[in-house]
Amino acid sequence: MAKEFDVVVIGGGPGGYIAAIRAAQLGFNTACIDEWKNKDGKPALGGTCTNVGCIPSKALLQSSENFEHAGKHFADHGIQVSGLGLDLAKMLGRKDAVVKQNNDGIQYLFKKNKVSFFHGRGSFAGKAEGGWQVNVGEESLTARHVIVATGSNPRALPGVPFDEEKVLSNDGALRIPAVPRKLVLIGSGVIGLEMGSVWRRVGAEVTVLEALPTFLGAVDEQIAKEAHKAFTKQGLKIELGVKVGEVKTSGAGVSVSYTSAKGEEQTLQADRVIVSIGRVPNTIGLNAESVGLKVDERGAIVVDDECRTNLPNVWAIGDVVRGPMLAHKAEEEGVAVAERIAGQHGHVNFNTIPWVIYTSPEIAWVGQTEQQLKAAGVKYKAGSFPFMANGRARALGDTTGMVKFLAHAESDEILGVHIVGPMASELISEAVVAMEFRASAEDIARICHAHPSLSEATKEAALAIDKRTLNF
C-alpha cells in the first residue's frame, strides 16, 4: 500500500532538502527521496553540492591555501618553516570528513523537522487519487504536491566521456590520489578554476584552455582582467580563444590537441585533464515523459516564474530548471515553493543572487556588469577602490584586487557590485542586502564601517561613485 504525503521532494541537494524542511515547518507531511550514497553504501544527503561540489572543493581550497601560505608567505610574517611536506591522503581524508559532517547534519535536520527520508531514485509512476504516485525502489508514495529538485550533471566533451581517472569531472578532480605533474583544464568555469587552484598550490603545472576569447565572460570586464593578472602571476597558464580537438588517453596520461587563437596547431601532454565546460539538467530516471512533464531543448524542466511545471501541483527548482546553477538559488526557490504550496507569497529575486568564485583572490558579484549596462543603454556611474589602499588588507598581506560599484547616473540606485580580492565571498553580502532594499551608493557611503576592516573598501568604492574617496 502506498504511503501518503502532502509533499514529496525528489532530490536531497540544497534545493531539495531545504524545500522539504520548509514544507515540514509549514505543517505538511513531507518526504524527501535521494539516491546518493557513500562508499559504504549508506545515504549521503546533500546532492552534488555537499558530496562532490561546493563543500569538498572549499575544504581542499582551504587546505591547499594553508600549504601555499606555509611555503611561500609565512616568512613575510617572520614565521620560519622547515621540512614542509604534503600528506595528500590526509588532506583528502579531511575533505571527506567535512563532507560527512554535512551529510550527517542534513539527516539530523530531517529528524528534527520530521521529514521522512527514502533512499533511492525517485520516479513518476502516474496520477494518484488527489495527486501523484512516485516510486522509489520497492516503495510507492502518493503526494498532493511533488517538488522536483534533481539537480544537474557535468557536461562532457563530445566523444570524450568521463572516466574519472584521466578525464575528470568535478567528482574525479576532488579525489586525485597523487599530485599530477601536469594538469590541463578544459574550460575556465568556476569548478575548473577552483580545482586548478587547488592542484597548482600543491605542485601541479596547470594549463587552462578556454574557447571564449575573453576570460570569465560573465564577470565584469575590469574585475576579470584583474583576476586574470593575479592568476597568471601565480603560475596558472591561461590560453583563450582555443578550439579543442582530439583528447586521447593512454597509460602515460592524456594528450589534448587544440588550435590556438592564432590558428596554430598545438598538443599538450598531461597526467590528467579536468573538463569544466558547464553542466546539464538531470532528469535521468525521473520518468518525466510517462506523465507528460514538459522538458525544453536543453533538457531543463519547463517552469513559470513561480516554479510551477505544466502539471498541476508539480513544481521544479534548482539546477534542473532555468536560471543560474547555484546552490543558494536552489535553496531560495525551495523555500519559496514550500511557502507557495502553503498559500504564502514566496520570493526569489534573480537580480540579487550573489555569484562567487572561491579562488585566491576570491571573485564575487551581484547585479549587472558594466558591459551589460552599456549594452542596455543605461546611464550609470562607476566607482572603485583598491585593496592596496586598505589597512586591513595590508595587515593581512593580501592587497590584490578591488571593490567596484555601479550606480544609476540619476537615481544613484546600486545596479551592481563587483569584488576581486580577499574575502570577497563575505563582503558581497552587504551589497546583496543593499540592492534588495534598493539602496543608493550614497546610503553605503554614509554608513559607518568598522576600522580597520576589509569592508571599508566597500564604503570607499561607494564614495568613489562621486569621486570622493577618503583613503585613495
From TrEMBL:
Residues annotated as domain FAD/NAD(P)-binding: 5-334
> Which keywords annotate this record?
Cytoplasm, FAD, Flavoprotein, NAD, Nucleotide-binding, Oxidoreductase, Redox-active center
Its main localization is cytoplasm
**GO CC terms of this entry:** cytoplasm
The enzyme class is: oxidoreductase
InterPro entries recorded for this chain?
A: Class-I_Pyr_Nuc-Dis_Oxidored, FAD/NAD-bd_sf, FAD/NAD-binding_dom, FAD/NAD-linked_Rdtase_dimer_sf, Lipoamide_DH, Pyr_nuc-diS_OxRdtase, Pyr_nucl-diS_OxRdtase_dimer
Compartments, as annotated in UniProt: Cytoplasm
Cofactor(s) the protein requires to work: FAD
Q: Which Pfam families match?
A: Pyr_redox_2 (PF07992), Pyr_redox_dim (PF02852)
Annotated catalytic residues: H451
Single GO molecular function: dihydrolipoyl dehydrogenase (NADH) activity
Q: Give the cofactor binding note.
A: Binds 1 FAD per subunit.
Q: Which domain of life is it from?
A: Bacteria
- Example GO biological process term? 2-oxoglutarate metabolic process
Q: List the disulfide bonds.
A: C49-C54
- Reaction(s) catalysed by this chain's protein: N(6)-[(R)-dihydrolipoyl]-L-lysyl-[protein] + NAD(+) = N(6)-[(R)-lipoyl]-L-lysyl-[protein] + NADH + H(+)
**Which Enzyme Commission numbers does its entry carry?**
1.8.1.4
Domain Pyridine nucleotide-disulphide oxidoreductase dimerisation: residue ranges: 353-462
Q: Where does NAD(+) bind?
A: G187, S188, G189, V190, I191, G192, L193, E194, E210, G278
Q: Where does FAD bind?
A: K58, G122, T150, G151, S152, D319, M325, L326, A327, H328
Q: What PANTHER family has UniProt attached to this entry?
A: DIHYDROLIPOYL DEHYDROGENASE, DISULFIDE OXIDOREDUCTASE
What further fact does the record state? The active site is a redox-active disulfide bond.
Tell me which family the UniProt entry assigns to this protein: Belongs to the class-I pyridine nucleotide-disulfide oxidoreductase family.
State the protein's name.
Dihydrolipoyl dehydrogenase
Species in which this protein is naturally found:
Ramlibacter henchirensis
Q: Gene encoding this polypeptide?
A: lpdA
